[in-house]
Amino acid sequence: RFQPPLDVLSSIVDVCPELSLGLDCLERTPLHLAACWGCDPDVISALLGAAELQLANVTGLLLDKNEGDSFDAEYLSECLERVAGKPDSQGKTPLHYAIEFLSSQVSHQSHQNEEWDFVAMCTLAPVLDRAVAVVKILAEACPDAIEMKDAQGKTPMDHVHYRVRG
What we know:
Blueprint: H1 6-15, H2 30-36, H3 41-58, H4 73-84, H5 94-112, H6 118-141, H7 156-165
């Protein structure tokens, strides 16, 4: 339902790269929203890469690659952390949203079925695989986000405990 085709996303980012850093009324970036709605890991990676490059370009430390200029890999890594670790107005990072999505899928399925049958497991397995991959991508991009607390004082893992345990 919320899976934008990667080629369409790439075309949009190519034409309007500044949109990758755009904010909505709750200060969420496209990366926050993609993580919240359980987008594919490829979409998360594309948004992360586009926002990282745009941030580096905006700050002037990336030069035109077509002219053979080099860019600072360490600085690019810092940009990646800034994008992946950016809190929204509720203090949530994209990792908060990705982990909330993952735990909501497990919680929803366990409430529907007292016993997890084979069909339920087969249906949920690909969704969980994609969600875990997204969490891994975001955690690797900004390891500090694992310990970041939102406006409620909760880390991403606190939200897992709340959702699964109730």
